User: What shape does this take?
Amino acid sequence: MNSMTRARGRNGPDYHPDNHRALEAATALGRALAVQGRRPEATQQLTRCATAWREHFGARHPHTVAVEADLAALTRL
Assistant: This one.
């Protein structure tokens, strides 16, 4: 199974640690949705990303911290 196959799970994307670029792209998509004012979609996307970053890279990883800050900013709007 290659990294692109792992990136597509049955119930949506599976952000496997071997494919961190896919997770970076998914995080960028969540941020783009937020900028466009598509808050429900952005929240859903960034929540999935935050969970994946936390599970695969830890709570103190810079990307985990950044995406959680993005989520917090969305909830304050």
